[in-house]
Amino acid sequence: MNRVLAADIADLNRLVEIDSEVIDNSSRREIIKRAIENGQCLIAKEEEEITGFLIHDTSFFECAFISLVIVSPSKRRRGFASLLIEYMVRSSATEKIFSSTNRSNTGMQKVFHSNGFVESGMVENLDDGDPEVIYFKAKPFFSDC
Hints:
The protein is an alpha+beta fold. The protein has one domain: Gcn5-related N-acetyltransferase (GNAT) (Aminopeptidase, 3-Layer(aba) Sandwich), CATH 3.40.630. 29% of the residues lie in helices and 36% in strands. The protein has four helices and seven strands; from the N terminus they run E-H-H-E-E-E-H-E-H-E-E. The protein has a seven-stranded mixed sheet. Strand 6 (118-123) and strand 7 form a beta hairpin. It is globular, with a radius of gyration of 15 Å. The mean pLDDT is 94. Pfam families: Acetyltransf_1 (PF00583). This is Acetyltransferase. It comes from Metabacillus indicus (Bacillus indicus).
């Protein structure tokens, strides 16, 4: 059974391990730790195994912003990124949700599009020759009526 939970500090080493599989170093350890401590990190689990994580905050013009989505390379293409994003969008404290990825990251662009995000602009000069594409999604309105 796949599920999403708030990350706990006990998960830190596993999250850093997954992140290191992707970026080949542990340079984001403090970022991940701070996100966990601030309640801004979600984890995806398959049974009891952590398969990926998402970091978010509301520092982007007071709107929710997904700053990082990481899935273990051995667990990709199995819906874990979408599971994390869907959960975050449903539980968002703000009506607008933003995120971004490099123009070269076509895999993440597909994930955003398949989860109902639309392109909302571009930022040049963050990574030389690889602009950052901003994505947006409005939080769905659910009614009990």
